[in-house]
Amino acid sequence: MLMAAFTFMGANAAINRANNYLKAADVTAKQGQTVDVALTMVNKTFDIINWQTELVLPEGVTLVSVAPAERWSEEIVVTDNKLFSETENAVATGEGVVAKITLQVASTVAEGSYDIALKSTVMHAKDNTEIAQTDPQYFKLTVEKADEGKKGDLNGDGKVTASDIQVVLNAMADEDNNPAYDLNGDGKVTASDIQIILNIMAEE
Asked: Where in the chain is the domain with CATH 2.60.40.680?
């Protein structure tokens, strides 16, 4: 009798996992650029009040930001690639985007296809049911060769602006001497590289 009860509970948990989860579609980005990923919640059988997951990223790909979207309006807390959010107003059953995730692909990442995992995903329903995924959900990031852009256009938008200066400032803050941002070729990313961008902007 006890064994039957455990079997039923296990089967019920498996059904819950199959009908309530987080996923993301495959994306493509060029070397040195950012890419937005739409995180989708599928909750077919429960109204959800909170969720959490962890991004497992390939080397050279970093998490820039996470913002709520469409079906989710509450702040999303990010700690070491772990995402968590909760709401007082449960999200009714359905399927749709709950977050926009922005990733940065370093210019040093080789062309190719990379798996990104959503692991340790847990969702809590309005009735306190916990749905804990036992297996990661995967989506693919395809990295393409960077365009031969103009000098100083570090964010790949086709223009040389203050946004490119911000890229250098971010690199300096992180002590990131990425050759893509080293515009004067001295092996370091410094204020001298910002001056080059300013000079280009003044000439345009």
From this structure: 2-144
